[in-house]
Each structure stands twice: as C-alpha cells, then as structure tokens.
Write a structure and sequence with these properties.
By secondary structure, the chain is α+β, with helices and mostly antiparallel strands. It is built from one helix and three strands; from the N terminus they run E-E-E-H. The longest helix is centred in the C-terminal third of the chain and has 9 residues, at 40-48.
Length: 59
Amino acid sequence: MHRRHRPLHGGGSHLRPDEPRALEEWNGVSYEPAGAAPDLAAAQRWVNEQTPSDGTDRR
C-alpha cells in the first residue's frame, strides 16, 4: 500500500515543518484521506510505518 502526506494549507511538503499534514493512502485507483498528522516528522513516521506487500523494501 502506498502512503503519502501533504501540508493541509498547500505548498511544498518540506515547508513549514511544524504545521499539520493530511495523510493519504492509495486504494488502487486514487489516493484517499487516511487522517492527519500534527507535523512533518509525525507524517514521515506514518509513511515509513508501511510494510511493502510484495516483500521489497521501497524506502
């Protein structure tokens, strides 16, 4: 499953690291909302929690 995060208020994902992030997961067709993270560090941890379903490491 693919995961990504984006700033709630737009802009580059590296800008304003202390602002909240939208969390999204790929459902096979498009990304759908999966929650929110309080900041960039928490969003990155959430993205990296995923385990590849095909046995390869994508990090």
